Amino acid sequence: MSTVLLEARMATVAAAVEVELAALLPAAEGAQARLNEAMRYAALGGGKRLRPFLVAATAELFGITGAAPIRVGAAVELIHAYSLVHDDLPAMDDAALRRGRPSCHRAFDEATAILAGDALQALAFEVLARDDYGADPGQRCRLVRKLAEASGALGMCGGQMIDLLAERQELTVAEITTLQRLKTGAIIGFSCEAGAVLGRAGSAETEALRGYAHDLGLAFQIKDDLLDLEGDSAVTGKDSGRDSEVGKATFVRRLGVAGARAKLEELRRSALGRLDIFGDSARVLGQLFAFVIDRRS
């Protein structure tokens, strides 16, 4: 599959998720209109929607298409949006830009941004549990539980805590790997495993997707580290050089630019090997890995 075709498929999924999010997010009206407006500001109109695409692509391996993976993708994006809102706060990264526009707390205020993040997180679990979601009750329970695990203290939030502590201490490559496996990789892992849940995959197939997600999550973060060092804010849509300023623990800092790029290639080979179980049907996931490590934003 060419890069043009891959990007077209990603755009199709992103458009479907955008429509779903617009329908799921509360309208900016009523006494809490400012909160609703901030939620929509944070979740709509931006990003590559990589995580929903992973849900759709992995579900398709098992013949599942249509509304079911799109709803899961929307739930993942609600979690992702909440995490970015909170990550940008002054107590965290104090970022001025997100997706090429003022971060949520800059566009509104800190208190509204905190509440918007809280409400986005709650909505993510609600939309998976609601009666208007067509997955069967067992699948819905598994998805809610797995998304909660990926988001909490043993997943994304735990990784963020380690990341904050790492600003005051040196981490080894193994420790940075653990940090990123939780902070970035846990939600990417859920996105891949969600497709397996919807497709009622066997244990070998599920394990292969977990391994692929592990490699992809690390590669995504290493590429982000490289973009923070070398990227242009006008292209990336967020502040550049922030990691270096605050002394964050990154692969680039420990391995150097050349070492980080070598690690990307190592992860690519590993990820492609994990996909062998699916044969040619997983070609899009291989192409997606190349897209992630070659991107400019």
TrEMBL record:
Keyword Metal-binding: yes
Cofactor: Mg(2+)
Gene3D superfamilies: Farnesyl Diphosphate Synthase
Keywords: Isoprene biosynthesis, Magnesium, Metal-binding, Transferase
Xref: InterPro entries: Isoprenoid_synthase_dom_sf, Polyprenyl_synt, Polyprenyl_synt_CS, Prenyl_diphosphate_synthase
Pfam family, one: polyprenyl_synt
Family: Belongs to the FPP/GGPP synthase family.
Protein name: Polyprenyl synthetase family protein
Organism: Benzoatithermus flavus
